[in-house]
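Researcher: I'd like a candidate sequence for this fold, 445 residues long. If you have to choose between options at a position, lean toward the conservative one.
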């Protein structure tokens, strides 16, 4: 079963936009009401039986059941009689709001922190239509319950064999969007084992990516490039009276600027991910927690680069294009020589890798990417350790240092070739053996 999400821009008219805004506000109040009931039930049972809380608490009866998802969902018909305003929203949309609350509650129980919060005015941004009897798309219009037909920019058609399962209407500062979830009986083959040409990927601030093949992409600063305009808009917002019409207009301009920066970054990440997939068949990256990196002295630039979003996008692109994506241990990748695996200590100021053991020299980020590729090969089935051909090469003691494919040291020149009693890099073994060659042909030169 294959499920994809396609995002389209929709253009509701003034009446439809008013209805959507009213629905969002009703859903926000319903979410807060259900959360209040949940918190009251917890508060009435958290204090001991022989003493009361220092603050006033709403006490529920002892036999009152826990306000679970099914109980609160079954209470919606009675709530519509008490509050006729709820009848304006489609019934399934209200059910998804209750489902959203209990998903947050289950997530809090699993990880132990992050209790669901009340949503302020304007914080409810999306509505979910979970079910359709027939195809809601008719030409350049989408038919939604109680909204009727809404204009949609169908910039790419729905593929043949896919059925629309649900539609999420999303409100942003620049307009309204419809995220259509489509599903098909076909399934993409899971690439569980690496194959073909391996590629290590190192991410950084000055160079957003550096590959084991020597390709380097200079980093782009999206937030810093637009920060001057954003600062001006935020200064104008600070001078407005809160909750006034001018304040709301200035706030929307700030939000639009943030959307503009985010869209540029996401578009660039998708293009870069496809470019990386064109270079190799098995992609390896570091398993870094980028949230920890964002807390350092380069936190602003780290968040601007969006490494976590790029890794998620690259994983998705590798899946739809039939590539293998794997994560390796990140510790010491920049402090290890990818050729002889000796430890070479470097500071952030050292941008060139120069190994004193084997005299291997190349760019620091490229060397880190090559070490990532080595670790990826070692931890997967691409590793050739233990095979007879590798043992024959290793016992010979012959090694060529200039064996990185497509000139990893093209900028700085190749290091001096010396005969060193150590094994050749796994990356070079895979390049010759796994793809039909022999490592002995690489060593014959």
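Model: Candidate sequence:
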């Amino acid at each position: 079963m294959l499920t994809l999400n396609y995002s389209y821009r929709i253009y509701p008219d003034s009446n439809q936009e008013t209805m959507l805004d009213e629905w969002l506000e009703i859903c926000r109040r319903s979410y807060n009401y259900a959360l209040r009931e949940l918190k009251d039930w917890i508060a009435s049972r958290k204090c001991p039986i022989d003493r009361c809380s220092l603050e006033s608490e709403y006490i529920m009866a002892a036999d009152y059941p826990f306000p679970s998802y099914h109980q609160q969902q079954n209470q919606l018909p009675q709530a519509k009689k008490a509050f006729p305003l709820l009848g304006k929203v489609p019934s399934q949309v209200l059910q998804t709001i209750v489902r959203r609350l209990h998903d947050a509650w289950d997530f809090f129980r699993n990880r132990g922190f992050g209790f669901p919060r009340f949503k302020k005015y304007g914080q409810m941004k999306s509505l979910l239509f979970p079910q359709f009897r027939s195809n809601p798309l008719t030409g350049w219009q989408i038919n939604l319950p109680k909204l009727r037909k809404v204009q949609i920019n169908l910039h790419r058609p729905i593929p043949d064999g896919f059925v629309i399962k649900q539609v999420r209407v999303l409100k942003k500062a620049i307009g309204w969007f419809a995220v259509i979830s489509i599903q098909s009986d076909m399934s993409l083959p899971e690439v569980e084992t690496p194959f073909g040409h391996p590629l290590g990927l190192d991410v950084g601030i000055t160079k957003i990516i550096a590959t084991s093949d020597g390709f380097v992409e200079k980093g782009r600063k999206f937030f810093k490039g637009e920060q001057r305009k954003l600062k001006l808009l935020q200064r104008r917002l600070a001078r407005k009276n809160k909750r006034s019409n001018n304040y709301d207009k200035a706030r929307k301009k700030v939000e639009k600027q943030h959307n503009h920066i985010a869209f540029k970054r996401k578009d660039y990440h998708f293009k870069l991910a496809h470019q990386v997939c064109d270079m190799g068949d098995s992609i390896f990256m570091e398993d870094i927690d980028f949230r920890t990196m964002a807390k350092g002295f380069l936190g602003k630039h780290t968040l601007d680069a969006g490494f976590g979003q790029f890794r998620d996008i690259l994983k998705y692109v590798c899946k739809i294009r039939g590539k293998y994506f794997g994560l390796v241990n990140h510790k010491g990748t920049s402090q290890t020589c990818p050729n002889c695996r000796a430890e070479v200590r470097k500071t952030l100021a050292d941008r060139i890798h120069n190994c004193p053991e084997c005299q291997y020299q190349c760019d620091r980020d490229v060397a880190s990417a090559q070490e990532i590729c080595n670790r990826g090969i070692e931890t997967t089935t691409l590793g050739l350790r233990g095979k007879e051909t590798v043992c024959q090469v290793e016992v010979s003691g012959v090694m060529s240092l200039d064996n990185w494919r497509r000139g990893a040291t093209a900028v700085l020149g190749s290091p001096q070739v010396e005969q060193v009693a150590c094994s050749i890099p796994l990356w070079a073994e895979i390049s010759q053996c796994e793809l039909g060659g022999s490592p002995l042909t690489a060593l014959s030169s």
